[in-house]
Amino acid sequence: MSSCCCCKEKQAFVGVRVVVLLGAPGAGKGTVAQYLSDNYNVLHFSTGNLLRNEGKEDTEIGREVSAIIGSGGLVGDDVVNRIVKSNLSKVFATDSLVLLDGYPRSVDQAEYLDSLGDGALKNVIRAVEIDVDHEVAVARISNRRVCSECGATFGPLDDIADCSRCGGALVKRADDEEAVVRRRLQEYVDTTLPVSEYYACRLFKISGESSPEESAREVDDVFRDFGVKKRGDDS
Ligand SMILES: [Zn+2]
Fold this sequence. Notes:
Layout: E1 18-23, H1 29-39, E2 42-46, H2 47-56, H3 60-70, H4 77-91, E3 97-101, H5 107-115, E4 125-131, H6 134-142, E5 145-147, E6 153-154, E7 170-171, H7 178-199, E8 203-207, H8 212-225
Parallel strand pairs: 1-3, 1-4, 2-3, 4-8
Antiparallel strand pairs: 5-6, 5-7
This protein binds zinc ion.
């Protein structure tokens, strides 16, 4: 059990149902989310996917979302909150563990999440922050290329001209230009970093700069503290 600055022991297992994944752009949230999906019985809810799915539904909120996304706008807190709430209530009847990725992105949203279920949800939420030096993150993102066909990501060590999965052309996204990355990092520091502070004793940190094997071990340690079993692990 890891300790923290404000209490002797981090709050451990009380039936963790929701894990919030936090980390700066370039921290490696995608990699950790993939590891968790491959090795644990988690439902991975990324805000992007939730919004895209909602936008396909012919409902009032679905039409609203697809109009906002279609015009390149940002979906507001209120709509995102409603979508997260309805998706959580759907899975809460099951005993699945939910991994939230990209939500909450502000303290306001974190407070909203805590208020669900008449405040009962608060006790079963834990946050995992992937810690990364911001210069490492900038270098990582500004050196990556993305497949224009399937969206797979490749780093500077992938010495290839075309996508190794589908043969599509590798491009550098406009979003990944250094100046844009620095702006996104600043946005993260201003808006989302306070979310980590908000979770205080419910926050567990792992390093975003370790090898894949070390990173997997750190994730396993944290999830063991949560009382969550790895798939196929009956011990
Ligand atoms: Zn591809």
